[in-house]
Amino acid sequence: MGLFNVYPLFDITPVRAQDVYIYDKDDNEYLDLYGGHAVISIGHSHPTYVKRLSDQLDKIAFYSNSIQNPLQQQMADKLARLSGCHDYDLFLCNSGAEANENALKVASFATGKKKVIAFNNSFHGRTSAAVAVTDNPKIVAPINAQQEVIFCELGDVNAVEKALETGDVCCIIIETIQGVGGLDEATTSFFDLIVTLSRKHNCLIIADEVQSGFGRTGDFFAFQKHKWTPDLIPIAKGMGNGFPVGGVLIHHDIKASFGMLGTTFGGNHLACTAVNAVLDVIESENLMQKANDTSTYFLDQIKEIKEIKRVKGRGLMLGLEFDFPIAELRKDLILNHRIFTGNSKNPNLIRILPSLTVQQHHLDHFVTALKKALKTRTS
């Protein structure tokens, strides 16, 4: 049996990893500044993470959500304390797409409505409703197109207000900082205005923190810089440091009922152990502050690279924008300089999404390699 061929792959076969480094089958070392789509938050094979998961495997790895699992409440308590989001309940699932899918479903249940406002260049996942609110027609199948979605330009308050005036919108879904779309971020005033409009029209707001959450921007959640209160907060990626896990923070104003949501694997013992380890490491190693400090250093180092026309994002969720397509540059970085970076819907933008444990000397290495690669490109 073959594999369903949907991924364009680099000819690299990782066999082990440690902190910000990946090693292939020939023991070549690669600097990982992408973290497998912002998934690696506390570094590959962090000793605390490895020990906790190994110990949990010796006890119990899985049982369904028909029994008590104290690890879930332990996680919820830690998450509330570290994030400051005390006015929420937590629903656990397995991925970012699932998190967004369930957030959309809760919004529809809570309001009794079904239309959604999303934004151009958004990405929220590949499941039924999540892909419908993703701005990429190529991955929306006919069965997904039944969802009623209104796409607005990010930052266009008038377009949002006009869409809400129909009275049948259940929610607005927005990435505080767009990930796949290219690291664009709306202003604080825009967030303030859409919150006001949503309350006026009995519409909920989903802050998709799947990629930007868990300290990546220097705040626990990216929306916190703008000082507003979402109704629902989908989370995943850096949450499990590679273990498949996701969740939704659901505001206390929204009431649960038995059977409203459900999952077989979500919140299992191993998943909870992984997240609890991540939260403990983020706190004990002060990784949110380190993300801010490292970002400040990095931004200072790249000022002298004239080919970089704009830097987008915050913390360690960054995009370097050039005035040319970066596909060949990124290929050069990974194959010749052995540095992993990311791309986006914006063909001119390289994404930098390393572990929060990345250090200044790692970024110095990248800056040196980038300069060499840019020089090679023009020679």
UniProtKB/TrEMBL annotation:
UniProt keyword Transferase, yes or no: yes
CDD domains: OAT_like
Keywords of this entry: Aminotransferase, Pyridoxal phosphate, Transferase
Cofactor: pyridoxal 5'-phosphate
SUPFAM superfamilies: PLP-dependent transferases
GO MF assignments: identical protein binding; pyridoxal phosphate binding; transaminase activity
Any single Pfam family the record assigns to this protein: Aminotran_3
Family: Belongs to the class-III pyridoxal-phosphate-dependent aminotransferase family.
Listed PANTHER family: ACETYLORNITHINE AMINOTRANSFERASE, MITOCHONDRIAL (PTHR11986:SF79), AMINOTRANSFERASE CLASS III (PTHR11986)
Protein name according to UniProt: Aspartate aminotransferase family protein
Source organism per UniProt: Nonlabens ponticola
